[in-house]
Specification:
By secondary structure, the chain is α+β, with helices and mostly antiparallel strands. It has 15 helices and 33 strands. Among the domains are: 165-304, Jelly Rolls, CATH 2.60.120; 327-457, Galactose-binding domain-like (Jelly Rolls). The strands form six sheets. It has an eight-stranded parallel beta barrel, surrounded by five helices. Strands 5, 8, 9, 11, 12 and 14 form a six-stranded antiparallel sheet that branches. Strands 6, 7, 10, 13, 15 and 16 form a six-stranded antiparallel sheet that branches. It is flat, with a radius of gyration of 33 Å.
Amino acid sequence: MKHFKFIFPAILFMGSLLISCSETDEFKYDDGRTPLTDVKDIPLSNSEKLGLYENLQEYIPAGFWLGCGIDMVDGYMNSETYRNLTNANFNAVTAGYHMKHGAIVSNTGTLNFQTVDNFVNALPANIDLFGHTLVWHQNQNKTYLNRLIAPEVIAAPGENLLDLSALEDGTFTGWGRNNASGITVSSGDGRSGGDAVRLETTTGGNEWDTQLTSPDIPAVTGHTYELSFWIKSEAAGQGRVSFAGMTNNYPWIDGGALFDTDGTWQEITYSDLEAASDIIKISFDLGKIAGVYYIDISSISVIDKDAEPTYVNLITNGTFDANLDGWAQWNGTGMTQAAEADSYEGTGALQVVNATSGNEWDIQIHVDFTSTLEEDKNYEISFMIKSDVDASMRCSTTGGTSQYQGTQNTGAAWDKITWEFVGNGTETGLNFDLGKIAATYYIDNVIVKEVVDGGGGTIIITKTWEEKVQIIDDAMHNWITEMVNHYKNRVHDWDVVNEPMTEGGNVRAGQETTEAADEFYWQYYLGDDYAVKAFEYARAACNSDDKLFINDYNLESNNSKLEGIIAYVNYIEAQGQTVDGIGTQTHAYIRNADASTIAEMKAGIDNMFIKLAATGKLVKVSELDIRVGSTTPSPDLLELQSEMYRYVIESYLTNVPSAQQYGITLWGISDGNNGSWLQDDAPCVWDKNYNRKPAYMGVANGLTGYDVSADWDYGYLIDTQN
């Protein structure tokens, strides 16, 4: 009988299925017989054995990573029990959330490493930190990425958020003044002969000794703001601007906390100021260096860069969410309201069935403009469209002299079509001409608006598709490079691309917009090569011997997806990049599983590991958990959960050659708390009170390849203690 070194103290609870991880000073058991030392060869129950297992680290094969997906903050950093369990049982960890794009990247694009840095400083050096994850479609800072490619909105005069009237009339009502006697309005001393705020600092000192503070400015938390103004001083001086209600209330400008001034007017602009509150304030701080400063009042501007573009839609129903009111079929038949599932966004769309190919005007869908278009003004008509087959269409105007758009191609994917033209003063309505090719057409988000070239209103500059592709490519490059470089001395293995495949085994195409607040599809803009680029950028930034992985789920239950990710790895490498390993998440579910279902699950697990091993790549079980479908599973479910944990691990060790075994990561420490992603289940090897579950034995026995406790008996335990 092989005996493992026991850690006494440990607790044995008779009749209890779950054994606490807490410890006492000695082994004690009394079955009512005297003397206790006469008790020999009484078999131990599983619940009694459970507390006598060593920490999982004692069972890890040599050179093998046994990891755990952890909650970095609420779990590891803020719970001593959670942290101790992690350190004692695992030699690798994966951050469940805090190393992802959404956690690191701010709305302005800056990277905040502080939370992860604090964790890294607390994590023992002998525990590997796996980098998770660089490129995924979820847990992204969608606000920042969408802002990069959004139309540029140039606010027109009159859209300043800051009320300047109390400066213009010299009352300073609502404005705060530190050194009030030194802050006045000076008539005619502005940049173009208008008024200026005159700030006189007689003795240099603190920046805030001469300070002009704005009234409250309503803001939107998370939006980005820009402050600009013109300033000069009678002699060389320095100033700064400080804020209240921003994520950074003391931003630097041009590499420093202060800006220089002299006798020449200069424009000062603070861009990318992110609001952390629904109220912001601005302070002009000019007390550092003695002198007289002038701020041109009319030039002081605060703009919300994320404000919705302002325009008036010249049709009354462009979304079709409620009905088709305002629209009519002039020629042909087949116009109906499409269901939500066939809309681009919202709850409806315009659906038109053209049964026979012919002339464009054979099928015409019409809507009136709210007013006749004006001569020599620029107009834009935009809409989303798709068709069930490759087809074409055009727009035309109605009225005295019609205008015609060129032929536009349509297909199965939603596409945005834009038509710009100069009004001739007779256009009264819009037609969709859909008669040329037989198809079913879907139209949504129709906008007809005046385009302002400058000076008179808000200017909206839309980026081209090519510009968007380059911007997203650059954003991915910057994110990966900065993240990998920052942690290259601590992280030596990265989940570069996460969940790239559909259930059908194809690369996810992604979509432009989603309802989820954190979803952004890199591949929508970069195509199948998004992963090629991700591996290229990660490889360039990491250490030469670091390992880079691709990762997905359901590979054990979906052979098409399994073969799809293997094919995608081959594609990535055919484009010149190297994928070191393939990660399989392996989230199993055993609720109500009968014997045939369990057998099928086991066969799928074996098949997965055999096929992954055949690639020659490193293989990693990246997020292993066994769901039971309940927060209070029965004893039988707990035993089946233990069996499945053991089976997955033993299948991995059997079917993946040792040289390709990169390790197994359990996804979560304990059930139902501290970051568990399955709050309504019990998938982990510790329960919500950090007690070991039978699954703990399954993991330990799987790692060793046999039942560690098979030959234990009370006599042996008593003899061992004596």
